[in-house]
Amino acid sequence: MFWTEFKRINLFLLVSIFIISTSCSSEETGENEINNDEIEESLTEEEKIIRQVESVLGISATENYDIQIQFKHIDQDTLKDALILVNRKEYGYHKVKEGNTERFFESNGYTGLYNFVFLKLGGNDKLISTTPVGSNVNFPLTVEFLELTSKAHKDFFVEYRIRNSLHRNYYTVRNDKMFLTFSCPVFDSIGEPKPRVYDIEHTTSEVRIAKDIALYEGRIVDYNVDEIEDINAYTPKDIVRDGELYVFFIFDDKKMKYVTPMGAN
Questions:
Q1: What are the beta bridge partners of residue 178?
Q2: pTM of the predicted model, to two decimals?
Q3: What residue ranges do the domains of the chain occupy?
Q4: φ and ψ at 216, to 5 degrees?
Q5: Residue 96 contacts residue 113 (beta carbons within 8 Å)
Q6: Is the CB of residue 262 less than 8 Å from the CB of residue 235?
């Protein structure tokens, strides 16, 4: 898995250096104008994406934030696409302090709209965005790619923390749009004697192109309440199946959603 991580790699500094060098050159040649196209061409693809994200989210040059960029073949063409995950932890803490809501923020597991998912398709200059993922700002999103709704497309899901639970959002891309197709908990009620846990399986169907999503009753291996230091940050060693099928969902390509069989058209 190839990840490109940029923790404020300082595009501002890069552009400043370019402007200074261009300015010096202009003094020698008598030219006073800076060619923005030349600046743009000097940037790598990752740096261009960072500039776009900062522009869309209004991120200042002084803000520290986390951005992860992963290149994959996501849609059906042959060009590589970029999935971008952004975490604005510093900004989140600044906003709650500014609004004097720090106690409420802490009591709700540091949950806010400070984790973002963007997609940039190969050959396309625009960023595709979805609604911010309401989650614990202390935990950047994690992602996994898989073939789910079609062999011609690469789907993916992101996992995120909400208080003492872990949740998962599934996404697919069609016609230059990103769709949230399904959302479910992975585990919940950490800190309780018997937390709610699911073993999630993507099962092949004999009659449908898309795989189904099945949730089985599960359990956390070596779960011990007395050993948990922080229920909002607990990470299980492993989850195993511990019961029967709880519920399963099938993909409705008209709704672009996973639904129960009774809810399908």
A1: 173
A2: 0.84
A3: 4-263
A4: -105, 150
A5: no
A6: no
Contacts of 178 (CB under 8 A, 6+ apart): 117, 119, 128, 129, 130, 171, 172
DSSP 8-state secondary structure symbol assigned to residue 58: T
- Structure tokens that stand for 239 in this block: 């989850």
Tell me if residue 57 falls in helix, strand or coil.
helix
Query: Which is it for the CA torsion 210, 200, 258, 163, positive or negative?
Result: negative
The pLDDT score that the predictor gives to residue 155 is 97
The packing angle between helices 11-29 and 45-57, to 10°, is 110
Residue 114 structure tokens: 């400070």
Q: Residue 142: pLDDT above 70? A: yes
Identify the band that residue 36 occupies on the pLDDT scale cut at 50, 70 and 90.
low
Give the helix, strand, coil percentages of the chain, each rounded to 5.
25, 40, 40
Note the pLDDT of residue 12: 41
Residue 259: CB partners within 8 Å, gap ≥ 6? 249, 250, 252
Residue by residue, DSSP assigns 216-257 as EEEEETT--GGG-S-TTS---S-EEEEEEEEEEEEEETTTTE
